[in-house]
Amino acid sequence: MSGFAGKVCVMTGAGGGMGLAIARALRAEGCAVTAIDPKPAPSDFAAGAGGAARYVQGDATDEALVERTVSDAFENAGRLDYLVNAAGVAWYDRDGAIAEMEMAVWHRTIEINLTAAALMARHAEPRMRRTGAGGAMVHIASVVGLRNMENILEGGPIDAYQVSKAGLAALSRSLAMQLAPAGIRSNTICPGAVLTPMTAPTYEADPSRVDAMVARTPLGRLGLPEDIAYACLFLLSDKASFITGIDLVVDGGIMAKL
Length: 258
Fold this sequence. Notes:
Layout (H helix, E strand, L loop, with lengths): L7 E5 L4 H12 L3 E6 L15 E5 L5 H15 L4 E4 L17 H29 L3 E6 L18 H21 L4 E8 L8 H6 L1 H10 L8 H12 L10 E4 L8
Helix pairs in contact: 1-7, 2-3, 3-4
């Protein structure tokens, strides 16, 4: 996919899984990537030829860190073209029904999954406007932000995660309307069941969950981080220049069922 050479992206969640796959795919296309993540930098974050890579180990809910990192990316390159919010947590062992969970879990999940994305957009937007070349934002939400989980009664809800992802989709639509006059687009990707370092322990602890998710998915497999990365690059690219304010479902067909 062409058109990324010389462009600049700031993002969260590049410490593994979907975010790392997105960062590597962008760099392979010649896009410079600056990432914020609390985990140590993966050994392959900057591997291979491609655009420049900078990894900031830190918490994207820290507004001072976000502002400094986004500003540095802009000042160093003289432009900012893309924002990708890929950070997210789902604490299956602690999240649950709002009547039962610890409210600290609720607050921290909202903070990481939604507030951090808002802070990134808050500080990326003016710099993307100053670049004057349009641009795009992609936020990694979830199918559960659009619909209830199919197994919500059998397996139990994860209310904090679900609400945070619904809020992220709403934020994206608002940004799409606000930024359209500047040629800046905002969309979400809503993955279904994707095998990542975050979900792997849950599946390993109960392999029957893998079989259940595969059975629910019409395409008959779990998603891979690369599936999300390819969708993300499309939405960021000029090939999606007439697409804004949408929630792109990448779920193997789960939401196509009644």
